[in-house]
């Protein structure tokens, strides 16, 4: 069996030590499309080192910036073909603003394996501290392994976010670049699904698709720019479910509802009849 929950759940993964520089942060932001207006002072907070601030979603790539091989889905009790895997959900909670330069240690473990019938969901938690042991951020992610369900495990509870029964407070349209995935893969995710047309067709897609975590970062930036005056230090956490694919070059339409210190978010692809992209998304502010 490719997935054995009795082995996987609770398994601790190898500790990872890593570091980053302002150049790494700049690359990540540019890979999300930052700097489209290079004279806008708010954009330069992402794209120029003089007043550089780190978008919290940088946490999703910081440990993998020096990885140059395609990822594998190989953990204790989990062996899955990469072509069967898509990202399910991602959350990042920052305990204080991420510094522009740093060294850190990541400790990860598998917290759950869920049986969705036709698929399995593997949930992973990563706690990151700096070299003195001070917590920096906590990330939780889930991968959706198609064809690996049906092993009799727990299905899990619903994490659906109820939206207000009114129009959104803000709607933001964000274009992506045709080469967006080719830029973003330089941040460490070399999965050929995002670059190789033949591999993408073999995985069931007509063309390479955008990394889910790229969409996750693009939308976090769009929400921050629209409602937080591009002040990334106000973000406490950002979580979202990946509800559908994005094709590089498409426009993303993000609807945002204010609820006190919480922003409720959905994102669709208007070029494809408002196909869902991100759902059950929540940005919490300080």
Q: What is the H level of CATH, i.e. the homologous superfamily? A: Hotdog Thioesterase
Estimate the global geometry from the Cα principal axes: globular
User: Structural class of the helices, strands and pairings?
Assistant: alpha+beta
CATH class: Alpha Beta
Strand order in space, largest sheet = 1-5-6-7-4-9-12-11-10-8
CATH architecture type: Roll
Pattern of helices and strands: HEHHEEEEEEEHHHEEEE
N-to-C CA distance: 44 Å
Family: Belongs to the enoyl-CoA hydratase/isomerase family.
GO biological process, one term: fatty acid beta-oxidation
Pfam family, one: MFE-2_hydrat-2_N
Protein name: Acyl dehydratase
Question: Can you describe this structure?
Answer:
The chain is of the alpha+beta class and 286 residues long. The protein has a single domain, classed as Hotdog Thioesterase (Thiol Ester Dehydrase, Chain A), CATH 3.10.129.10. The protein has helices at 5-8, 22-31, 41-47, 180-184, 197-202, 212-227, and strands at residues 16-20, 73-75, 78-80, 85-94, 102-115, 119-130, 135-146, 170-175, 235-242, 251-259, 262-269, 275-285. A hairpin with a 2-residue loop joins strand 2 and strand 3 (78-80). Pfam families: MaoC_dehydratas, MFE-2_hydrat-2_N. Residues 18-147 form the Peroxisomal multifunctional enzyme type 2-like N-terminal domain. InterPro entries: HotDog_dom_sf, MaoC-like_dom, MFE-2_N. GO terms for molecular function: (3S)-3-hydroxyacyl-CoA dehydrogenase (NAD+) activity; 17-beta-hydroxysteroid dehydrogenase (NAD+) activity; enoyl-CoA hydratase activity.
């Amino acid at each position: 069996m490719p997935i054995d929950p009795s082995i996987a759940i609770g398994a601790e993964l190898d500790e990872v030590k890593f570091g980053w520089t302002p150049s790494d942060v700049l690359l990540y932001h540019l890979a999300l499309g930052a700097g489209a207006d290079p004279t806008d002072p708010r954009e330069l907070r992402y794209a120029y080192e003089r007043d550089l601030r780190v978008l919290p979603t940088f946490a999703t790539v910081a440990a993998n910036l020096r990885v140059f091989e395609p990822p594998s889905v190989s953990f204790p009790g989990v062996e899955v073909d990469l072509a069967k895997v898509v990202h399910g959900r991602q959350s990042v909670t920052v305990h204080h603003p991420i510094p522009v330069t740093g060294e850190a240690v990541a400790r990860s473990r598998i917290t759950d394996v869920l049986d969705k019938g036709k698929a399995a969901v593997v949930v992973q938690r990563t706690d990151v501290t700096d070299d003195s042991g001070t917590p920096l951020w906590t990330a939780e992610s889930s991968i959706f392994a198609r064809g690996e369900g049906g092993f009799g495990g727990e299905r899990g509870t619903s994490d659906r976010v109820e939206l207000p029964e009114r129009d959104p407070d803000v709607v933001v349209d964000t274009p992506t670049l045709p080469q967006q995935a080719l830029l973003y893969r330089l941040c460490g995710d070399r999965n050929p699904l995002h670059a190789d047309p033949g591999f993408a067709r073999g995985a069931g897609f007509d063309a390479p698709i955008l990394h889910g975590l790229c969409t996750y970062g693009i939308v976090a930036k769009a929400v921050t720019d629209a409602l937080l005056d591009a002040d990334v230090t106000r973000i406490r956490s950002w979580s979202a479910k990946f509800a559908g694919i994005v094709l590089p070059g498409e426009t993303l339409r993000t609807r945002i509802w204010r609820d006190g210190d919480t922003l409720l978010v959905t994102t669709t692809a208007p070029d494809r009849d408002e196909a869902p992209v991100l759902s059950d998304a929540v940005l919490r502010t300080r």
